[in-house]
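Is it possible to get an amino acid sequence alongside its tokenized fold?
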Amino acid sequence: MVDRYGSVRTVRVSGVLATLGGLLIVFGGHPAVAMGGFALMGLGIAVVVPLCFAAAGRSGANPSLAIAGVATITYTSGLVAPSAIGGLAQLTSLVVSFGLVTLLSCGLAALAGVLRAGDRDRPKISSAGAAVPGPRP
């Protein structure tokens, strides 16, 4: 998908999937529906971190700094987010905490454009799977 549609479009679609999954979790009303929502949310979020690392690797003259920044944010949020979601759920409810997660997943679609810089350096892929030649530097 990334080769055909680019990072921005892929993350936008993934953000929509994650948001739809979150809506199923919050408003589903049945455990089976919520489980489907968790599956959609997982599918939507799964592609984001690898594409962020890839974009960082293609950025600027010193991509190691960008990769370190992405790693710091990713691992820190991986440590903080579960306890924050659990703490909010304990203060309010699980519905409210997953409502916040759903709201944040909307940000994936809204902020996907930050990955655009890395896409312009990648070769475009035709529908037949062959690389389409781009402009020469």
